[in-house]
Design goal:
The chain has one domain (about 5-69). The chain is about 50% helix and about 15% strand. The chain is built from three helices and two strands, in the order ααββα. It has helices spanning about 5-15, 20-25, 50-69, and strands at about 35-40, 45-50. Bound molecules: zinc ion.
Length: about 70
């Protein structure tokens, strides 16, 4: 995790107040170790956690914290 796409996404998320925290809550790891939201296509199973969104939101939160310091 943490490729160019997710880091770009992280910067976008970091610019929107409250969104990183909201995404981390919604995409929280299930007991099965998967994302409860993201699936691999319309008929696909839920993806293994952390999904791209969760990883980006976690990076966004780090970025928000860094900006505040
Ligand atoms: Zn997800």
């Amino acid at each position: 995790m943490g490729g160019p796409l997710s880091s770009e996404l992280a910067m976008v998320i970091a610019d929107m107040p409250g969104v990183a925290q909201d995404l981390l809550r919604k995409h929280r790891r299930t007991a099965e170790g998967r994302c409860p939201v993201c699936t691999a296509g319309p008929q696909g199973a839920h993806v293994v956690h952390p999904c791209t969104v969760y990883a980006a939101a976690a990076s966004a939160l780090t970025e928000i914290t860094r900006r505040r310091s």
